[in-house]
Design a protein that fits this description.
Elements: H1 2-35, H2 43-64, H3 72-75, H4 80-114, H5 128-153, H6 159-171
Helix pairs in contact: 1-2, 2-5, 4-5
Amino acid sequence: MKQIKEKLYLCSGLLAGLCIILITLLLLAQIVGRLFGFIVPSAEDFAGYALAASTFLGLAYTFKEGGHIRVTLLIQRFSPVSRKWQEGLILAFSLALMSYVSYACAYMVYESYLYDEVSYGYIPVPLWIPQTPVAIGVIALNLAILDAFITVLKGKTPNYSEHEDTLALEEI
């Protein structure tokens, strides 16, 4: 099971990176097109979709690797027992919030599909297509938070916290 989770987070991060490459290629095509007198239709729209996809698909991987910004100056001053309680409470709150966001994003994709909503560009794109990576990224983050919450409930240290402690030791 652990290998599946690790592959999910890594795959999510790799897809985010591919979206950034796609943005670069779209902008490059648009620049070259201007030099030769043609336009790339809806390049801005597709770059925006790729930006949203890269942002949300990268959330779970970044969370697992300890890349999200946290107030470590305050957290590291807690005793080990109170730090575990604080981590548990924050993860429980985050899990509740991200569960709602996951539901809302998935429902948004469903409604866009149901009502055949399309974008307003040169190329009309069904909106459920660019919304799907956003929902997948939020659901992956929700699973990563659930994984960390279960780890804390077992009395262990979550991955992101280990990375923060390693960084704090390197600064000293």
